[in-house]
Amino acid sequence: MKFSSIALVVSDAKKSAKWFEEKLGFEIRSKDGHWVAVSQKGMPIVIHLCADLYPLEPGISGFGFVCKDVAKEQKVLEAKGVKFTQPTKKEAWGIQAMFADPDGNEFSLTQE
């Protein structure tokens, strides 16, 4: 399992991406619907700029992890006592699960 992304709620994803690009030297990695991702050149971790029409739900931390097999990783983590708030599920865009820390902060786990 690898850390892959941080979701950041912004008022305008395209405007925010342009700011990251022009002011901080980030590159725009993707612009697919509401998914606008920026990152420093050469870095695998991205900031997912979520327009406020897609706000994070209560409890969701905005931190994302990726792995090769979500269902397998879920079993490994559950054996260690990690609580999954959303079991492995196939979505139109990929396979994902959600797990929580002891304080209820939720993290996404997506198949790469």
The CATH architecture assignment of the largest domain turns out to be Roll
Elements, N to C (H/E): EHEEEEHEEE
Alpha plus pi helix count: 2
| Rg over C-alpha atoms, rounded to the nearest angstrom | 15 Å
Q: Ends: how far apart?
A: 10 Å
The helix/strand class is alpha+beta
CATH topology of the largest domain: 2,3-Dihydroxybiphenyl 1,2-Dioxygenase, domain 1
Q: Biggest β-sheet: count, sense, barrel?
A: 8 strands, mixed
Show unreliable segments. Answer: none
Helices and strands, with pairings:
Blueprint: E1 2-10, H1 13-24, E2 27-32, E3 35-39, E4 46-51, E5 60-67, H2 70-79, E6 83-91, E7 94-100, E8 106-111
Parallel strand pairs: 1-4, 5-8
Antiparallel strand pairs: 1-5, 2-3, 3-4, 6-7, 7-8
Explain the overall architecture:
The protein has 112 residues and is of the alpha+beta class. It folds into two domains: 7-55, glyoxalase-related enzyme like fold (2-Layer Sandwich), CATH 3.30.1900.10; 60-112, 2,3-Dihydroxybiphenyl 1,2-Dioxygenase, domain 1. Helix content is 20%, strand content 50%. β3 and β4 (46-51) form a beta hairpin.
